[in-house]
Design goal:
single chain; alpha/beta; 8 helices; 7 strands; 30% helix
Length: 233
């Protein structure tokens, strides 16, 4: 587990980044049963709608994100070479480098939870090559349009990279089809995080890997920031 200070606004001073790679052979074979949902201040649908609007604004350059910014990408692990590959797909909304954490190999099949404009998908393709396959899933059509335009500009067809519309709680992928699942500061936005993890384990092959960069709370936040909307960027 790698912990580092999150580069964000002062109101997030009590939040840290979490990056973790998990071998999930046992979890794939025997996923844990669902647990009862904790009470929420807003409905799942309302939280998803709020997140979708925020990230549509980011995709259309009509809004920003509280997580990070493109000038500070090296602070969360992106190299100059990574930034050159990412280009305009890097919108400054991640909090780590799960593709590097995953240590991808040539020929592997990778799924990115909440791919946005495709930054980590393009980096994953560089690692797995044309022998491999990368799938990006996002629930925001504006982000997917940007990602698909980026793939076309890079000459990456559906034989090596595909962007799919869907929710990370209901992944549009078959059972045991992925070698690796990655996620960059997205699981924290879900109203049902245990279900996201169960879905990730479902699509992973036995012996697959889950690499996540996300945020965790280490201190008590002010009460006005404890609503789902405030916590979803």
């Amino acid at each position: 587990v790698i912990l580092g200070h999150r580069h964000a606004a002062a109101r997030w001073a009590s939040v840290r980044m979490l990056a973790v790679r998990v071998p999930v052979a046992m979890a794939v074979d025997k996923p844990r049963a669902a647990t009862a949902k904790p009470p929420r201040a807003t409905s799942d649908a309302a939280q998803r709608a709020s997140v979708a609007k925020d990230y549509a604004d980011v995709a259309n350059q009509a809004g920003g994100c509280c997580v990070s910014s493109t000038p500070n990408r090296s602070a969360i692990g992106y190299t100059e070479a990574d930034r050159a590959v990412a280009g305009d797909a890097d919108l400054g909304v991640g909090c780590g480098t799960p593709v590097r954490l995953a240590a991808l190999k040539r020929g592997e099949t990778v799924l990115d939870l909440g791919c946005g404009a495709g930054v980590d998908c393009f980096l994953a393709h560089e690692d797995v090559g044309r022998e491999g396959f990368v799938v990006g899933v996002d629930m925001t059509p504006d982000m997917l349009a940007k990602a698909r335009a980026g793939a076309e500009k890079r000459g990456l067809g559906s034989d090596v990279l595909e962007f799919r519309l869907g929710e990370i709680e209901n992944l549009p992928a078959g059972d045991a089809t992925m070698d690796v699942v990655v996620s960059n500061c997205v699981i924290n936005l879900s109203p049902d995080k245990p279900r996201v993890l169960r879905e990730a384990f479902r699509v992973l092959k036995p012996g697959g890997r889950l690499a996540v960069a996300d945020v965790v709370q280490t201190k008590t936040l002010p009460e006005h920031l404890m609503t789902n909307e405030a916590l979803s960027c």
